[in-house]
Amino acid sequence: MAALKTEIEADENEKEEVGEDALDDVNDNTSGKKKRRKKKKKKEGENEVPSLNEENTGDTNEGAADEKANSAENEADKKKKKKSKKGKGGKSAQTDPPSIPIADLFPNQVFPEGEIMQYAPSKDDRTAKDRFTSEEKRALDRMQNDTYNEVRLAAEAHRQTRQHMQRWIKPGMTMIEICEELENTARKLIKENGLQAGLAFPTGCSRNHCAAHYTPNAGDPTVLEYDDVTKIDFGTHINGRIIDCAFTLTFNPKYDKLVEAVRDATNTGIRTAGIDVQLCEIGAAIQEVMESYEVELNGKTYPVKSIRNLNGHSISPYRIHSGKTVPIVKGGEATVMEENEFYAIETFGSTGRGVVHDDMDCSHYMKNYDMPSYVPLRLNSSKGLLNIINKNFGTLAFCKRWLDRAGATKYQMALKDLCDKGIVDAYPPLCDIKGCYTAQFEHTIILRPTCKEVVSRGDDY
């Protein structure tokens, strides 16, 4: 590109030189032509005194013309600045805090790609390095453009929401306050529309020894503390195409090594992932990196451990966990990743035992994906609640706060009945031992025919 740019500039300079004498003969007071002459002289380092003819003729008209030209230039500069705010693809400027739907920010309805990574050669995919340039693979890529574009829209809504929350969250806020701000922002940006667009699962804001699946129920008074290590895990979707992405929020720098370990482990998992790569290879690579770190807390050094009974997973439309698991420790299945699969690569590190168990009040629920559309129920309250779930969430996860928002009342017994019958599954908070600290990072990736796209990647992580 640098060489091409130099040739273009040389052509423009040659044109200016050829036309210079003709321009000097025309006294039309046009600011654009004067501006080009002045720019040329400045560029060549000319400090010549202007000729009398140029300096003294038509003073009054010249002054008026210059004033008019300056005004026009200022107006042009303003327009240029305004245009520059739009960014690539005609993107309009977002408000602060963000409130304009992502679809409205991109008039051409083409949404930004995530990070593009070429596949590394593997023992099972000898042609990995050729995928990026293969015409056949490029054609397969183009066939999926609509799907990729939907997921990128959901990813942009996720990025802008989480970056707002990173600036907005402060110690002393209640967890309900934090979740409501995040969810209200995400709903605006994704342009919530029933099951076609919205939030993919409740906002996880698990703290300290709690690694996942905690969101406050109504009336929960929990307050975020300066010394907390909080995992912010939320999802957006368009037509069931889910972005599952999470980060760890801390205020005290003493946790920096823990956060660094988990971020590094997640990025290692992303680099290792690819078409025909065995899932167990990814787990081994993640554990090796994760457990190379240690963190000093209050004078004591703790090794960072991968939480061995948590993992990443494949994602399919309206199904957050769609069958394949991506371990974060060595061992596991030799199942391979395949072309055009979507994965959440997520890792959890802990200063505790590195194992989690169910604990605390349950808030997360999800309808069993394999249940038939019609299920006979005896209790009218159960029928009514199931109708609300089908209408508002389908097979996407939900929480009690969302049932309240959907208008459900006195549903505790009905919810228990649906869980007892296996129609709805409960997902209680997952905790390591009390007193330890856990961290998480997660990205959604697409194994495109030509390349690996980390679709949820942002400037933040």
Provide a descriptive summary of the structure in words.
The chain has about 450 residues and is an alpha+beta fold. Among the domains are: about 140-355 and about 430-460, Creatine Amidinohydrolase (Alpha-Beta Complex); about 365-425, Orthogonal Bundle (Arc Repressor Mutant, subunit A), CATH 1.10.10. Helices cover about 40% and strands about 20% of the residues. The protein has 14 helices and 18 strands. The strands form five sheets. Strands 1, 8, 9, 10, 11, 17 and 18 form a seven-stranded antiparallel sheet that branches. The chain has a three-stranded antiparallel sheet with strand order 2-4-5. It has a three-stranded antiparallel sheet with strand order 3-16-12, with no helix packed on it. A hairpin with a 4-residue loop joins β17 (about 440-445) and β18. α12 (about 380-390) packs across α14 (about 410-420). The longest helix is centred in the first third of the chain and has 26 residues, at about 60-85. The chain is globular and about 60 Å long. Pfam families: Peptidase_M24. Cotranslationally removes the N-terminal methionine from nascent proteins. The N-terminal methionine is often cleaved when the second residue in the primary sequence is small and uncharged (Met-Ala-, Cys, Gly, Pro, Ser, Thr, or Val). InterPro entries: Creatinase/aminopeptidase-like, Met_Aminopeptidase_Type2, Pept_M24, Pept_M24_MAP, Pept_M24A_MAP2, Pept_M24A_MAP2_BS, WH-like_DNA-bd_sf, WH_DNA-bd_sf. It is an enzyme of class 3 (hydrolase).
